[in-house]
Design a protein that fits this description.
four-stranded antiparallel beta sheet; six-stranded mixed beta sheet; alpha/beta; elongated; 952 residues; 29 helices
Length: 952
């Protein structure tokens, strides 16, 4: 089976016959199933993680289509933001924001607009190749004016609710990109780092040789220190060591390794108000350098005394406002230590200046000790620069005001995996922060805020109609030139020079993709296109797109933006490492698809583990899946084609009598029940694994035990019953698995419907135009399934006994005794016993409750049994010779044996009819001329044989 070749053929067929559009037209008047496509950015190549997400989307959309829903699938492109800017900066050789401004914002944004389509063809080819049906011809594009106008409308509504505000706060800030970030952006860039931490001695004022012992991981913030914080109810001690005294938390005495004695013990409240000498004296706008109380002080690490720099920490800033502390800005916007303040390392990037500051403190004997500390640190998710927490003026959305509504809306969402609802996502909502919306950048949706230069009046624009005249492009720098008259005074209003968080763009897509409310108002407000019934992306989107979707719909009082979500785990390499170019462990998805087929990757991703778990992508496992699952499924289909004649006529209704037929139909309908139940709950993995197990049962039990009914049936009726059953199962399997593996199921379906005499009214152009098969509960026989399981257990145990005794299965044995009497008696049970006898190759089965073990084989081999075993072995070897000759199934042969030994002559005399029947053979005539001469070794006998193909 060349699966990639089959898939290419199917792709051409789908395009020629317009199968995807036909699936939409077929369900045009049916209930809608709404899907939101998370917008990727086409300035980077698609990777395996993109394949994973799109496969999990496609299966649900195909399933719902086959269940009769109209499932429109509008593609989308995320086109704004710093990832695009950074790429263009590299291409142009620009290093800083000033370089961009010098180059020209207009020219720069034009380059950005071109850059976002760099890999559009690769994305579309990948999307088509993996059979993710998506409307790529009519996508939403976040840089288009209509999209931006809808975003502006949303922001104006938020403003009118009093939830958009300008504030000065300590925010996460990227000094390389020159802009602040939102909390959900920061959450995507944490890395585990090992870096020096320091224990510092702060001299206590008016006390000689006495110090507060303080710990910090950011020495560069020490020049901005204006207070020390303690826990009011934490126990502190003053200890004497040599000529110096130190104050620290009693629970943290373990950090002190020199000999000491405790001089005093007290609660932290006793320290509040005590003053100390600054390490780097600065001019303060108000009194500082004193001890204050804070509830965030911990005794889990450090010394129980926290250094406070209100300009460089969120908690520090909040404490500073509460205590009226001064704030010092000792670092420039480019992340370098400010010059002219006398700070060691001035002009250097803060992380580099750490060494200068430590050297200076050590020289002045204020550095107590340093040690390596491993912790999580945030880096810019776009450029990888360490983030700083920096006091800045930004525009915020007051998410804390809608926290309860966020939590209520989350309760209405079905999460897969379920633990995300109250775990990763729920925890994020419970700790929600105000959304830092504005960015001091260039390529993005402009913040629609105009401010009067004279009276500072604010106006938020919600549509282009609020301008006089038409504007060709709503981006910078064109929008920056728009001046509005102030409605309060005679001043002029100019736009605040900022763009918005790109994640707001993507979170606004349920509305902006339809240019709501300027168009399609009813379609949104009447539930036609909102909310989504289903979305899916990787698990990191719990703090990205998933969050912004819910955040914006909540801000607009429209409830949750989606009803169901599958959050898929990250794709890692075979060793569990994140894939990256620098590590050389990137796996190109198209290379794998060209080798094993898209269906194989899809199936691998559906079955390797649960959807939300990280997936270690190992080509060995992919190959194993291809060989075992796809090989088994396709070989079963080929078996049917091989042994069922082309004039076979599928029956609409039939009632099988054979126990194997009844069993496989029961098992299949049980499978359909499980698949429907799982997919309705957005569980993809369980149905896929159940299907995989069914294929194994079908091939390795049903087909194998039915092989004689196809190859050498007792009657035409017996062959027809087996054929009808296997045809029905294969055809229905193709429909049931079509959402999972759309290519191979199409190949099987088209062959089964075209190559046999199926009535035209029952055929479809494609399996994807069929209805998803639902279980026929009447055909489910749980008792039969359980008894067949018991029978197979007996077979497995008996075959294990054969193997341990070195007795081949072709060697008949006289008796099998079974301890458990459950299969004793009854016509149905008798049929099961016949299966067991045939599979184990025993002449008789008896039930014996006195056995110590579950069963016992009589391993004594009589002369008659031995001869039969030898005859069966000879048949096998002749069959192998037929294959060697390239003979087809129904080709007949002539056999001529050259035998001298009496034992061999007796064997052939007794078993010749059996041997000839099994091998489609006849005795050679006088003028026999062999096509192949073979010597067969049967135990100690050697039988030389001539074989020739006959013309019969």
């Amino acid at each position: 089976m060349n699966l990639p070749e089959i898939e290419q053929k199917i792709l051409k067929l789908w395009e020629k016959k317009r199968i995807f559009p036909k699936t939409l037209a077929r369900n045009k008047k049916n209930p809608r199933f709404v899907f939101f496509e998370g917008p990727p950015t086409a300035n980077g190549r698609p990777g395996l993680h993109h394949v994973e997400a799109r496969c999990f989307k496609d299966i649900i959309l195909r399933y719902k289509t086959m269940r009769g829903f109209l499932v429109e699938r509008k593609a989308g492109w995320d086109t704004h933001g710093l990832p695009v800017e950074i790429q263009v900066e590299k291409e142009l050789g620009l290093k800083t924001k000033k370089d961009v401004e010098k180059y020209g914002i207009g020219k720069f944004n034009k380059k950005c607009k071109e850059s976002v389509w760099q890999f559009k063809n690769e994305w579309e080819k990948m999307t088509e190749r993996i059979a993710f049906w998506l409307d790529l011809k009519h996508p939403y594009i976040t840089y288009e004016n209509n999209y931006i106008e809808s975003v502006w409308h949303i922001l104006k509504q938020i403003w009118e609710k009093g939830l958009l505000y300008k504030g000065s706060k300590v925010v996460p800030y990227c000094p390389r990109c020159g802009t602040s970030l939102s909390s959900h952006e920061v959450a995507q860039g944490y890395e585990t780092v090992k870096e020096p931490s320091v224990y510092i001695k702060f001299p206590i004022k008016a006390e000689s040789a006495s110090f507060f012992l303080v710990w910090t991981t950011t020495p560069w913030t020490l020049p901005a220190n204006t207070a020390l914080a303690v826990g009011e109810n934490i126990s502190y001690v003053k200890i004497k060591s040599g000529e110096e005294s130190y104050i620290l938390a009693k629970e943290r005495l373990g950090v002190f390794h020199q000999p000491y004695e405790i001089e005093d013990e007290f609660l932290g409240g006793a320290l509040v108000g005590r003053e100390y000498e600054p390490l780097f004296p600065m001019r303060l706008e108000r009194p500082g350098y004193r001890v204050v109380a804070a509830d965030f002080v911990s005794i889990e690490d450090g010394t129980g005394i926290v250094h406070i720099a209100p300009s460089f920490g969120i908690e520090d800033e909040q404490l500073g406002q509460k205590e009226g502390l001064p704030s010092l800005l000792t670092v420039e916007l480019d992340g370098k230590i400010a010059k002219g303040l006398g700070i060691p390392g001035e002009g250097k990037f803060v992380k580099d200046a750490d060494e200068d500051i430590k050297t200076d403190l050590k020289k002045r004997r204020f550095l107590f000790k340093e040690e390596i500390y491993e912790h999580e640190y945030p880096f810019c998710w776009r450029c990888g620069t360490p983030l700083l927490y920096y006091a800045k003026t930004s525009w915020f959305i007051k998410m804390t005001a809608v926290k309860e509504s966020l939590l209520e809306n989350n309760e209405k969402i079905n999460w897969e995996p379920a633990h995300l609802k109250n775990g990763r996502f729920g925890e994020w909502l419970r700790e929600v922060k105000d959304w830092n919306l504005s960015r001091e950048r260039f390529w993005g949706t402009p913040l629609p805020v105009w401010e009067c230069e004279k009276c500072k009046q604010i106006k938020v624009v919600g549509s282009v109609k609020e301008f006089e005249g038409k504007i060709r492009d709503l981006h910078r720098p064109y929008i920056d030139k728009v001046v509005l008259p102030c409605p309060v005074c005679d001043g002029e209003m100019r736009r605040v020079p900022a763009v918005i968080d790109v994640w707001f763009d993507s979170g606004a897509m349920p509305f902006a993709q339809w240019h709501y409310p300027f168009e399609n108002r009813e379609k949104i407000e009447q539930g036609f296109w909102f909310p989504a019934d289903f979305i899916s992306e990787a698990v990191d989107q719990t703090r990205g797109w998933f969050y912004t979707l819910v955040a914006i719909s909540t801000l607009l009082d429209k409830g949750p933006a989606f009803k169901n979500v599958i959050s898929v785990g990250h794709v890692l390499d075979a060793k569990g490492q994140k894939m990256s170019k620098s590590k050389g462990n990137i796996v190109e998805p198209m290379d794998v698809i060209d080798q094993f087929g898209a269906d194989t990757i899809r199936w691998y991703l559906y079955t390797i583990n649960q959807a939300g778990e990280p997936k270690r992508f190992d080509l060995k496992d992919v190959k194993d899946k291809f060989n075992k699952f796809f090989g088994t499924l396709y070989n079963t289909f080929v078996f049917f084609q091989t042994y069922v004649e082309k004039d076979f006529k599928p029956a609409r209704n039939f009632e099988p009598k054979n126990i194997l037929d009844k069993w496989i139909l029961s098992l299949f309908n049980t499978l359909l029940d499980e698949m429907e139940e799982g997919l309705e709950k957005y569980d993809v993995v369980s149905p896929a694994r159940a299907f995989e197990k069914f294929v194994e049962n079908l091939s390795n039990w049903y087909v194998r035990r039915s092989r004689r009914r196809f190859q050498k049936p007792e009657s035409v009726r017996e062959k027809n019953e087996a054929s009808q059953t296997l045809y029905f199962v294969l055809l229905s399997m193709a429909k049931a698995a079509a959402p999972f593996i759309p290519f191979l199921t199409e190949e099987i379906y088209l062959n089964l419907t075209k190559n046999y005499k199926m009535k035209a009214r029952d055929r479809r152009e494609s399996v994807h135009l069929c209805e998803f098969p639902l279980a026929d509960k009447k055909q489910i026989n749980r008792e039969l399934e359980e008894k067949m399981d018991q029978a197979r257990e007996i077979v497995a145990l008996a075959l294990a006994q054969r193997a341990s005794s070195g007795i081949k299965v072709r060697q008949p044995l006289a008796l099998l005794e079974i301890k458990n009497p459950e299969l004793d008696g009854g016509s149905g049970n008798q049929a099961l016993l016949e299966l067991i006898k045939d599979e184990i190759n025993v002449k008789e089965i008896k039930f014996n409750p006195e056995l110590k073990e579950e069963l016992q084989l009589d391993k004594k081999i009589t002369k008659e049994l031995r001869e039969e075993g030898m005859a069966r072995e000879l048949v096998r070897q002749i069959q192998d010779a037929r294959k060697q000759m390239g003979l087809k199934r129904n080709d007949t042969i002539a056999l001529k044996f050259h035998i001298k030994e009496k034992q061999a002559q007796n064997l052939l005399a007794s078993w010749q009819d059996f041997i000839f029947k099994e091998t489609y053979a006849q005795a050679a005539g006088d003028e026999f001329k062999s096509d192949l001469e073979k010597e067969f070794q049967i135990d100690e006998l050697k039988i030389r044989t001539g074989i020739a193909k006959t013309n019969l």
